[in-house]
Design goal:
Number of helices: 11
Distance between the termini: 70 Å
Helix content: 40-55%
Strand content: 15-25%
Oligomer: single chain
Strand order of the largest sheet: 1-2-9-4-7-10
Number of strands: 10
Shape: globular
Order of helices and strands: HEEEEEEEEEHEHHHHHHHHH
Length: 305
């Protein structure tokens, strides 16, 4: 099908009823399935929504947005800042709409989309972490992007929104920083910015003690960065340099350590100690313990007898 035939396929039967897909204005043609609202994410928000066929338009966005098709394939047209993308839209392909840009879509059928919004402060922090001057970075619209690395992050974000046993604020913040880094991969500034290697021992100890004392809490990067006295994105890099693990994985490791210690004491049931160690439930504990330590709660109980 050539471009003219694609255009003709949209010309009949649309009616171009106005609906909103990227912003939160009322529309009878958008149905939210899942949202990150009230999850305590920092600098990032997301939602999964069903969108009906037709035309959609948005005013200039206040936040950077990556919108991804996660439902059935579509024939559609996207327009942003003079760029026109006529495509057979496959799941996993995405559009990048920077803050300040408007976008419109014409879609041949109903489908499901993941919209991820990034605050400017998060992107600036990520630029500093990457050694870029945030004042010299200019993000441009991109339509119909196919990138496996970015797609993996977006699918992980979708799974996080859909799961009742979500990985917590630290995990979502980690995904947000990874998306921000993707947006900055073509940043124009390459001037190195001074950065140390790892956190100073006193600050690192303050953070690890705080994590240990609050394992049952939904710890976020912003919260831990405040304990360390650095920005969230800077903290994520320095913490990994210091301990060799991303923040969310370090927290999971410490929770597994606590669960193993409680299992060896034997005073609580597995379901009780799972909550005491910061896991959502017994099955969540078992999966994480198997992945981190290669053992199950039953293995620990047997060894302790």
């Amino acid at each position: 099908m050539d471009d003219l035939e694609v255009e003709d396929s949209f010309a009949v039967g649309f009616g171009c009823a106005m609906m909103t897909r990227l912003e939160d204005e009322p529309s009878g043609r958008t149905w939210e399935r899942h949202t990150s609202e009230a999850r305590g994410w920092s600098g990032i928000s997301a939602r999964i929504a069903d969108v009906s066929s037709g035309c959609s338009q948005t005013p200039p966005l206040e936040r950077h947005c990556i919108t991804t098709l996660v439902g059935r394939p579509q024939i559609d047209i996207a327009r942003c800042d003079g760029i026109v993308s006529r495509r057979f839209h496959l799941p996993g392909e995405f559009d990048v709409i920077p803050a300040g840009f408007a976008v419109s879509y014409e879609s041949s059928g109903s489908s499901t989309y993941l919209d991820v919004f990034l605050e400017e402060t998060l992107v600036r922090d990520a630029a500093v972490t990457m050694g870029l001057d945030p004042d010299l970075i200019t993000l441009q619209p991109q339509l119909g992007v196919r990138d496996l690395r970015a797609a993996h992050i977006l699918w992980a974000m979708k799974a996080e929104l859909e799961s009742d046993e979500h990985g917590g604020s630290a995990y979502a913040d980690h995904l947000g920083l990874a998306l921000a880094a993707y947006l900055l991969r073509d940043g124009r500034s390459r001037a190195p910015m001074p950065m140390g290697v790892g956190l100073p021992q006193r600050r690192l100890r303050r953070v690890t003690d705080y994590i240990q004392d609050n394992l049952t809490a939904d710890l976020s990067l912003a919260e831990l960065a405040a304990v360390a006295g650095v920005s969230p994105s800077h903290f994520a890099l320095l913490f990994k340099q210091s301990v060799g693990l991303p923040v969310h994985r370090y927290i999971i490791h410490r929770r597994v350590d606590r669960a193993i210690a409680l299992l060896r004491i034997g005073a609580l049931s597995v379901s009780e100690l799972a909550l005491e160690a910061g896991f959502a439930n017994q099955s969540h504990l078992a999966r994480c313990m198997r992945r981190v330590a290669g053992i199950t709660p039953s293995d620990v109980r047997r060894e302790s007898r």
